Amino acid sequence: MADLVERLGQRFPGRREQIEQLVELLGAADEPAPGCVFVYGPSATGKTAVVRALFGEYGREGRRHAVVSGVECFTVRLLFERVLNAWAGHVPTAAGRYGNYARCDTVVDFVNGARALLQGRGGEAHYIVVDQAERLRDRGATLLAALARLRELAGANVAVVLLSTVVWDKFRPRHGGAPDPHAVFFPYYSKEQVLAIIARDCPADEPERFFLTFVDAVYEVFHRNCVDLNELRHLVALLYPKFVQPVYERQAARSEFPRLFKLCQPYFAAASERLYLREISSGEWLKHSAVASAATAPEDVTLAIHRMADAGDALDLPYYTKFLLIAAFLASYNPTRLDAQYFARGPQQGAGGRRGRRRGPAPKDATGGGSRQQLLGPRAFAIERMLAIFYSIIAEPVDSSVDVQIQIASLITLRLLSRASAGDRLDGVKCKCNVGLETIRAISRSVRFEVDRFLYDFS
Amino acid sequence: MAEAYRPMDAYDSMTDSTFILKPPGRQGGPGGASKGGALSADGGFVRLLQGREPAESLALRRRLFEEMWAPLEALLVEIEREVNSVGILEVCDFVDSSYAQIETSEKGRLAQPFAEVAAAVAFAGVNTDDHGKLFQSLQGQLQARGHHVALLESQYCGLQPNMHRCVLEQLFGSLHADLDAGGSASEPRSVAYDLGLLGLWWAAARDRAKQSGSSAATTTSKVVVILQDFEGFPPMVVDDFIRIATSYCDAVPIVLVLGLATSYECVQQSLTKVSISMLNVERFNLQRSKQCIDTAIRRIFVEGAAALLFGAEAYKSLLDQFLLYSFSIAGFVKKLKYAAMDFFYAHPLSVLAGMLALPLGASVGACPIRLCSDQIELVRMQRSVQRFVERQAEGEGGKAFVRRALTDDAFLQDVVLPQMLRRLVAYRQGYCVGIDMAAEIQALAPESARKPVRTLHYYGLSRPFDDCAHWKALLATVRRLKPAEMALLLQGLSRAAERPAGIDWALVSEDGTDVPRALRDAAEMLADPDKAAADAPTKAAAAGAPRRTRARTEVAGRPLRFFDSAISDAQLCALDKCCEAVEAVLRVCLRPYHDVPLSEVFYYRHSHLLDTTFSAQPRAAVQTALGRPRYYIDCDCCAPADAKDGVASDDAEGEDQRIMPTMEDASIAYRLHQECGRMINVYDWYTSFASVVEGQGRAAPSQSEIQARFMRAVEEMRFLGFIKATQRKTDHVVRLTWGA
């Protein structure tokens, strides 16, 4: 057993304590297994990897276990049938028309199936590992309680290991019925551990110390905002080739770290955010980033990165639809009481046009109060109001034909507007505008409409 | 009338609100061939000219319509396919190359830390009604390359099990034999669909392929899942699907294609960080509906692939629907077809389209039909024909020509009509050249001044040459050219003018300008300006000098030449001449179509019909039908008293607002309910209804009759969906539409 802990401890730096805990809890194959083990901790702390590796070892010892995912088993039937398949060693084949070991639609079916299956196995421990176990909460009220007490129900030596990013307090069935499981917590990695893990990614032909210096720098830049190990690895994998590029292009030596960082600067500045948000995917980056090289000017690099992020991504709408969307935006963010000032075209307006701006109660201070609509998000508005604004801001007269209504409906299906009233309500439909100011500005520019003149309290 | 009566029991359902009423009597036609269909044996064609149209003319119209529409439809499909093929090809290539190592020379590359699913984001534009076709052709292409494709629509994928079911059923359908080979029973097995099954199936298929030796096919093929309308999918479902797909992408090469109508922002908004970081996205642009429409307009309207052309208003209506509202190609085609049907079904002169295609020297006998006297009379009545005939009167023997044209039907058909049609054909060829030349000049103009073909065509149709600012801007561009550029331009224009073979330039315009020749002359003059100046010394001396001074004063029009002192006077003069030649040529080619004989017939004019058919105005229609029923019922009992006498009074509008007791009950109830708020007190409604109904002085109906009529009217309103019952307040109903 110590041998097992030693092996796994080397594979997973910084997780030795948790591995020990798990191995002790689960015990030997012929010992009574704990009813339920709850492994939790933030994402990317090695929960799944450690548990899978541990059970991989157990599998080699001949212990029966089933690893299922809470996301993937979107019905209880899938969950139960997979577990029984794994315990029985049954693999569905084409010859058997992909039939499962047994059919289980309910908890009762499953418990009966498990009883029947485990009866002749003589107290040997069987395990269920459920990844993303927080999803089990959506699969019926009794499922979690049943799993937690499966050992009692099935009358067999069964252990359930739940993996989750959520704490047990959020799981506990409301009316009791489930004993609290044994909890194993996976904390965040420390800096040394992160470096030790990423050091394993180091390419074979690169010196490890040089690589680690770069990783150290990336960690120092990003760890305040992002401690997710996978994200750091992602960034390192994509940015390291750019960092080392000047060495191969003979612009700097490996020892000149300040110079290398200076040359790598544009990538950090322009790309890291986009890479993190996946505005540039790894595939696009690998394909196109070779074009931009540190040998060229930094402006070119920045430009190339911007172009990569914006490729082919323009919202093009029909002419009136653009105005409808602008009208929806105005209706969402302008207060109703100022509509007359902004949009009325009466004789009292005079030649100056709509100069009603700021005639209403002036905002309290230049940056606006906390209750500015743009900070609160879009407000629901009645479609009639949006149409009134639409007919007011559009230059030429438009018939209120069915086309306009169709456009509203398709804006809703395209999620540019979201419906705020019940779906079966035909009259007095209320909507919210789901589009940001920047997009609206771009749309307004394309139809030569000065949206800023109509916006209240935007700066 | 007895046979027109239909028992109402088939139509009094309280749940269905629409019934199809076929016109009575039609189905009992000779032979009774059309069983149940609303169209008669003639495919809906009826004899025009109050039934005096000969049968062969009707048959010809029908044949012409079919002959025109079938190739046109094929052409439109072809254009759409052609335009989309680039984007589709890109996506197919992406699928082919996904999960392959990207080859670069870059050093120090690391392995990707975690598995990512390859995903193509395809921007398909907001015209969602065309997407079905687009993605089906994508699916077809991918399948042709040996991939297994599932095409999903959001309406069937509201929940995770449904989505999996759709994916697996489509994939297994594509390799149906696999399942049948496994077992004898063919009824669907009661398995739960999940991607685990897909993994097993994939492994089995791969093993089988290895055994049979055709390893190449399966090692490169992928499983492609296309989400046609990403916006419509519930975000949680897609999110989970991506997470599940990631866990299988080691075993099964799954490629996702996300069809987006809006922008990438939508993906970022709807998916969680976890699943977005699992996608290896590449973006593709499939939205090419504008390009598609441009090509279609060029092929159909400018080059004249069809006999039917659109007049300015109808064209505007066609284009507006596209540009202002939908970007929908399907909508464009629908409108086009409707116009073509309207033309061939309802225009007695549409038979002339059959003569358009006749070759120049065709004999009289080759003409597919003899027009009847009514049709000939109709031809004579066209304004453009009258103008054409009048113009002939000026020549010698003109009087006799006019007399025969107006009195002799055979002469008109055999001599005058072919002449006019030849002019029309020549005009259309010339017009096509004109648009080409305008495009050629445009290529020299700055980016902002360029217009797409659809707009050029609109200018060409709608405005006389001198009124159009764009043509003027183009000419201004020409004036700014240097001699070398001008020579290039003239070459280009000549090429455009000579491209279509067999244009009879003498027929294109009234004065018979030979466009290619004029261009050639201008080019020669530019090539050798001194010779040209020497050839016409007097004229150049007379006109050149003042023109020169003008060139120096009018700076705005010609800045380059003014400052470029390297250009000699003779060259300046030649340049000026060239500008004039270009202007003259454009003027000839881009003449408005109104002057061309028979333009009224061939340029479709019924824009109003298109508008009312395709852009219905339900609110206005309902309000007129119920608010002013006399327009529909065509009775005169409710008309205002003085309007009945034929005297239009000033307060006719006010009279119109009054609720007359002679109106239909439902109409009275509708008018009264308009004055109410959201909640309507039924008793108040009833009292005002009664007061209106009793208002008709003589023989007031009894109380119980009024009550019965009111109840029926209210029930009708409820049935039509204007009001509904409510529990919130006793004796009230809720107004549902166009609330106050």
Broad structural category of chain A: alpha/beta
Q: N-to-C SSE series of chain A?
A: HHEHEHHEHHEEHHHHHHHHHEHHEEH
Give the name of the CATH architecture of the largest domain in chain A.
3-Layer(aba) Sandwich
**Cα distance, first to last residue of chain A?**
66 Å
Distance between the termini of chain B: 44 Å
**CATH top-level class of the largest domain in chain A:** Alpha Beta
Q: In which range does the helix fraction of chain A lie?
A: 40-55%
Strand order across the largest sheet of chain A: 2-3-4-1-5
Domain Origin recognition complex subunit 3 winged helix C-terminal (chain B): 619-738
Keywords (chain B): DNA replication, DNA-binding, Nucleus
GO molecular function (chain B): DNA replication origin binding
Region (Disordered) (chain B): 16-36
Short description:
Chain A is built from 19 helices and eight strands. Chain A is of the alpha/beta class and 459 residues long.
Task: Give an overview in words.
The complex is a heterodimer of chains A (459) and B (740). Chain A has a five-stranded parallel beta sheet with strand order 2-3-4-1-5, sandwiched between helices. In chain A, 46% of the residues lie in helices and 8% in strands. The N and C termini of chain A lie far apart (66 Å). Chain A is built from 19 helices and eight strands. Chain A has helices at 2-11, 16-26, 47-61, 76-88, 107-118, 143-148, 150-154, 191-199, 208-222, 229-248, 257-276, 282-288, 298-309, 319-333, 339-343, 373-376, 383-393, 402-413, 437-446, and strands at 36-40, 64-69, 126-131, 158-164, 182-185, 381-382, 417-419, 430-433. In chain A, α1 runs antiparallel to α2 (16-26) and α9 (208-222) crosses α10 (229-248). The radius of gyration of chain A is 30 Å and the shape is flat. By secondary structure, chain A is an alpha/beta fold. Chain A has three domains: 2-185, Rossmann fold; 191-309, no CATH class; 319-345 and 372-454. The two termini of chain B are 44 Å apart. Chain B has 740 residues and is of the alpha/beta class. Chain B has a five-stranded parallel beta sheet, sandwiched between helices. A three-stranded antiparallel beta sheet of chain B has the order 8-10-9. Chain B has a two-stranded parallel ribbon with strand order 6-7. Among the domains of chain B are: 8-58, no CATH class; 118-176 and 193-278, Rossmann fold, CATH 3.40.50.300; 425-597, no CATH class; 617-644 and 654-735, no CATH class. The model of chain B is unreliable at 1-8, 26-39, 179-188, 537-559 and 642-651 (pLDDT under 50).
